[in-house]
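Morning. Coffee machine broken again, so started the prediction first thing and wrote up yesterday's gels while waiting. Chain of 340 residues, entered below exactly as on the submission form.
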Amino acid sequence: MKNKTIYFILATIVFFVGCSSKKYFEPPIVSGAIKFDHKLKDNIKTANRFGAVLDNGNVIDVDGVTYLKINKNSVFLNETKDYYIIAQGCENIELINKNTQESTTIPMTACPLGASIKNNQLAVVLADNSTDIYDITTKNVLFSQKGTPSLAINSLVAAPVFLDTLVVFPTLDGRLLVVDTKNFTPVRNIIINSEKFFNNVTYLVVDGENMFATTGKRLVSIISGQEFSYDGDIIDILYHAPYLYLLTLEGQIIQMDKTLRKVNQIKLPFASLNAIVIVGNKLYTIEKRGYLIEVDTINFNYKVFEIKGFMGRMKLNKMNFYDKHRIYYDKYYLDFNKER
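Came back before lunch.
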């Protein structure tokens, strides 16, 4: 009993020493204070890279709050010009036609994590690391390939990207699988990274002959067939032509050109950054201790604003999401599409 007491005391000391030694972001200058100036009808329940769902079922997409309302077991996956793509648990994908409101349900073999549509083809990445193509009209499987299962993944799962006659699948094991959509055969397998955990592709965008993809540890840029890479602890990324913008675990905000050459960089020691919104020549991101960082994308000077709540500076530890012009937090949001 005596030994157990000693162990408990030692463990308690280690815990409190560890907590007291933890360092947090402290801005050298605070340029002012802001408040979340808009309010949602309910709290954010779930969020991914393409949308968020509130507790009441309302959906926010990359353009803002939609008319769409889904049930509590469903997850918003993505949208196209014509369809909303909804995961109904792990059993089905529901396609809701934006024009007619008609619904089509396609059975799945595992939980869908990312999906896209072009014409009558639905491309899906499943939780067992399967990459499938379905015919929307017949609901038949046109292509299916299962990769190495991943035990742990990042919640920011990228969606497949359709090109002219190809679809690029972002897999859960750090690869890009390129499939021909005419004969449904793989034509290329691009390995981004080979980590065992949290190695899913979290971001994938194609701009003409340029393709950018990232996992939590590596960013790859393919420019007219030539490949470039950057290694680091990547929290998030946004391609805003002609530059890429990265947030890192070390509190860095990095501006890169398409060849991944660093153009500008800010280091905010101990900052825990989240969200990237660019409006005009201003980049906005939030720091979880309750700060908004505003960066001038031309000269890369920055300002720090304290985010005020009812009880002083807000701690941003709840679910958030961002779209083209706004950062959402819990049931509030900041809109940068107007002058601050």
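The two ends are 62 Å apart (CA to CA). Going to sketch it on the whiteboard this afternoon.
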